[in-house]
Write the structure tokens for this entry.
Amino acid sequence: MTSTLLKITLQPHSPFMTPLASDTIFGQLCWTIRHSMGEDKLKDLLTGYTEGQPFVVLSDALPLGYIPRPNVPLSKLGYNLEDPTKRKETKSKTWLAFDSNLLTLPLSQWHQYTRSLKDITPLENTELCLQQWQTIVTQPHNSLNRLTNQTGRDGGFSPFSRQATYYHPNALYNIYIVLNEELMDRTVLLNLLQQLGAFGYGKEASSGAGKFSVTDISPVTYNTHQQSNAYLTLGNLAPQGHEWDTKNSFYNTTIRFGRHGAEAVYMGNPFKNPTILSTAGAIFTPKEFNNRLFIGQGLNGLSKIITHTVQQGYTPVLPVYLDKKDN
């Protein structure tokens, strides 16, 4: 299987009610393929998906030119934590400026590349920081019975709230993609993602939320450390199926309460079984290191109404060198 690591540039054009997470983007991409290319084509592309042969693996949407700081103890990134006045500032630096030489350095030297949200600008020569061009707000809603034009059941008040993310017009993101170009051409993938952005992503897409444009699909090049021994993840991951050095693996977890989209919402039970995944920024150290573009596994057994449903449990990874002598 010939796979390539690519990246695209994504620009939001409306508020988002659903975070741009790797496995959710993959699910919506599959619906886009089904609607534009047919269900048979989607089934062909998903052949072997749960056996380590994905046709595409997507990352989270990451600020342009940045990757997540590894979820390791801060001392492993070279920070001196003896000064308590600097600990809060240090912990806020959750992003890494990603250039072609970053991966040649051991993790213990990465502290000099870390940035906090307020240090990141959407475009060069601007004074707008990420806190100014990405704002998360809570929006109150109330259920409405369309038959009676009353709120809630029996006219009762039934409020709920949702979080919406608003972006500055100059906000740009990267999504890293591992693509099997024997199964799908990169220009076809770009067109599919453009369709997804035009129709809208996530909740309330039919009301105008989740609109974005996609440009600039290109290969990712970087230099690596000669003794790379671990992987930095760029999206959610199901780490089963590999032999890990658990003493030198570090991660945070999230629980995904998935549900079907599009017309599958009306098939009786749109909800999927919950899954537990590690989040972007995890460090996984294998017992035997090999250069890989992605790790993880494809998940199935999630749905009672569409039994062949799969979920992305893979993630693109970058090779890193973790000093194990402190363990």
